[in-house]
Automatic annotation (TrEMBL):
It comes from the Bacteria. CDD domains: Ubl_MoaD. The keyword Nucleotide-binding applies. The keyword Transit peptide does not apply. InterPro entries: Beta-grasp_dom_sf, MOCS2A, Mopterin_synth/thiamin_S_b, ThiS/MoaD-like. It holds the Pfam family ThiS. Belongs to the MoaD family. GO terms for cellular component: molybdopterin adenylyltransferase complex. This is Molybdopterin synthase sulfur carrier subunit. GO terms for biological process: Mo-molybdopterin cofactor biosynthetic process.
Length: 106
């Protein structure tokens, strides 16, 4: 998978803070990137989730909670730090999660 350097990445401003988190030092942040149709469905290329650890499936559910109309996230391939992953794999603070929706062509 290619590198993501140079993308215009913007946050939606809709960040979630885990219970007990007050933005103090040590709070983890996961970057979540959207490509192709998902970028169109969410209206952004990136969101940030203040979370120390989650499974890929939990990240996917978080995205759906923010963007219920982003239905292609259910079928999207997921990558963490540019490596394709499974639903049960763990994502940590400072990781980058990318969702790449299925593509079709002729």
């Amino acid at each position: 998978m290619g590198r993501w350097d140079g993308l215009d990445r913007r946050s939606t401003g809709e960040e979630s803070i885990s219970p007990g988190r007050t933005g103090k030092r040590g709070a983890g942040r996961m970057k979540i990137l959207f490509f192709a149709g998902l970028k169109d469905q969410t209206g952004t290329e990136e969101v940030v989730w203040e979370k120390d650890e989650a499974t890929v499936g939990e990240v996917r559910e978080y995205v759906l909670s923010l963007f219920p109309h982003a239905y292609t996230v259910k079928q999207a391939m997921a990558a963490v730090n540019e490596e394709f992953v499974q639903e049960t794999d763990t994502v940590h603070a400072d990781d980058t999660v990318a969702f790449l929706p299925p593509v079709s062509g002729g």
